[in-house]
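Methods: holo model generation. Sequences were used as deposited, without trimming of termini or removal of tags, and paired with ligand SMILES retrieved from the corresponding compound records. Each pair was processed once, and we did not select among multiple samples. The sequence and glutathione SMILES for this entry were:
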Amino acid sequence: MIKLYYSPGSCALASHIALEEAGADYEAVRIDFGSDEQKKPDFLAINPKGRVPALVSDKGILTETPAILVFISQTYSASSLAPVNDPWALAQAQAFNSYLCATVHVAHAHGGRGHRWANQETSFEDMRQKVPQTVGDCFTLIENDYVKGPWVLGDTYSICDMYLYTVSRWLERDRVDISRFPKVKAQFEAIEKRPTVARVLENHFAD
Ligand SMILES: N[C@@H](CCC(=O)N[C@@H](CS)C(=O)NCC(=O)O)C(=O)O
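and the model returned the structure below.
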């Protein structure tokens, strides 16, 4: 059985939704960031990066959200979570998810994880101040150049929507008003209406 290591509200939520949408037989294992469980030897043995998500399958351990999302899509291809048989369409989905992973997530992380890039409190504060602008610029691009509507890839709901939803949940903390991005906002509201997503949220945030 697949195991997904996650922390509530983290980027692992995208993989959690994908497993549920795929109808996978999986167990979600909560890692407690409050006690720095992600930095303790037991978890580092699973993911030496000390980050979630980490997905343990019978093939081995997989990390990095875009890779996990495609692995789930291909493993449960009947669920049609991504255009896995169309190289160009899949590459476009990957381009979007890579942008969320490498640029948007990193811009967001400058708000609370400045210690990854600097040592001085003044540097952290400077990074924190910049977040509304950098994340806001990312979402302007997502709104104008990526989201076709109603879903990211157009008419078909996909792993890109699960990932965008996960990252959009951070906008309030990033001091960016989602109303600036009508297509993103509509996508956010639509995905929350899905019973599968509601079920994941209930489990994901349960104590
Ligand atoms: N590129 C990785 C990023 C993983 C990542 O940074 N996860 C965060 C949660 S959103 C984490 O585990 N942070 C723990 C820490 O920084 O100690 C991915 O997309 O899966």
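The first helix runs from residue 12 to 22.
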